[in-house]
Write a structure and sequence with these properties.
alpha+beta; DNA polymerase, domain 1; 4 domains; four-stranded antiparallel beta sheet; three-stranded antiparallel beta sheet; 13 helices; elongated
């Protein structure tokens, strides 16, 4: 091949010219400042291309795509000088609104993996964001988002769902190059209800659900299946030993109850209801055929590691049972039924 500068014949695989020292690797597209366009050469001896973004559009794959306006020149200097004129003739680039981002989000694989209840939460949260749905992501302020949340949600969980959704929208905006920071992380939530006894608080239970589902207010997270066992304990009132005595015959999924129990004659072989909140988790384990479980001591190790990782108070596993009783009492379940 010929050297790009001195035109001497040099080996085809040469990185530098052995005569003039010029680097031979093709120059890649070079940014010339944010929003000013770029100049690159087509091939080793091709034309110089001046390119500016004409507009953005959402493609069939749900991703933001840039449509560019280009013009070719024999000399690089001419291409550089042409950028300003090309920029003037190009319409203002489309900046995504929250509505655009929500459209993209609902078409993602992550959204598709959410349970029906999780999708309902996101849909309700989106409706609560109605005042800012048409706001451009680059223009909306933290103060505006905070005021919207404060006006639409007075308690912890609804406000938290709005923050979770905004975090997902910011993640997409960052991936699409329209934002550089997830501003939702600075949004404040109402105080979570505090537990009056040694039970997991609503905020801690929410952390467990987030960890199981792979969803949290600060952005996407890794889903941890093991956390589902902790949730099963907290939503059925079983002791760890009881859960480890279950086999596949203990489950009556159509009738939504489990036959289990230990420790006393009154508690043995009792019907344990599978509530609506925990049914999908139990069914996942049932369909996977994981029962009977093995190595109860590893459970305690993984349980402690999970609480530490999620920064949840290091309560013993028995706290799951206490949490169940507390939730039942808060829902005005008769004490005799709880004791049974």
């Amino acid at each position: 091949m010929l050297c790009r500068k001195c035109k001497h014949e040099i080996p085809d695989d040469a990185v530098y010219c052995c005569y003039c020292g010029r680097k031979q690797i093709q120059e890649r597209q070079k940014a010339r400042g944010n929003g000013t366009g770029s100049v690159y050469q087509r091939g080793n001896h091709g034309k110089w291309i001046a390119a500016v973004v004409d507009h953005y559009y959402i493609g069939k794959n749900g991703k933001l795509t840039a449509a560019r306006k280009t013009k070719s020149f024999d000399r690089k200097i001419d291409a550089v000088e042409a950028l300003s004129e090309l920029k003037k003739s190009a319409p203002e680039a489309h900046i995504l609104t929250l509505s655009d981002l929500y459209q993209i989000y609902t078409g993602t694989k992550k959204y598709g993996k959410l349970s029906d209840s999780q999708r309902d939460k996101m849909r309700i949260a989106w409706n609560r964001l109605q005042p800012v749905q048409l706001s451009k992501i680059s223009e909306i302020t933290i103060e505006t988002m905070q005021n919207t949340i404060d006006s639409a949600a007075k308690t912890y969980y609804p406000a938290r769902d709005m923050k979770v959704l905004l975090s997902h929208l910011y993640t997409i905006a960052i991936q699409q190059g329209q934002e550089t920071m997830n501003k939702s992380q600075y949004l404040e939530l109402p105080d979570a209800p505090k537990a009056k006894r040694q039970v997991f608080s609503e905020e801690e239970v929410a952390k467990l659900w987030d960890d199981y589902n792979g969803q949290c207010p600060t952005g996407p997270a890794e889903a941890h299946v093991f956390t589902g066992y902790i949730l099963v304990l907290a939503y059925t009132g079983m002791r760890v030993g009881e859960m480890y005595q279950l086999d596949m015959g203990s489950f009556h999924m159509d009738e939504r109850y489990i036959i289990g129990g230990e420790k006393s004659e009154a508690g043995r072989d009792r019907e344990i209801p599978i509530g609506k909140s925990i049914y999908a988790v139990v069914k996942r384990f049932y369909d996977a055929g994981v029962f009977p479980l093995k190595n109860i001591w590893k459970f305690y190790d993984d349980y402690s590691a999970t609480l530490k990782r999620l920064e949840i108070r290091p309560y013993p596993a028995q706290t799951c049972r206490h949490t169940y009783f507390t939730m039942m009492a808060e829902r005005h379940v008769h004490p005799a039924l709880i004791a049974a």
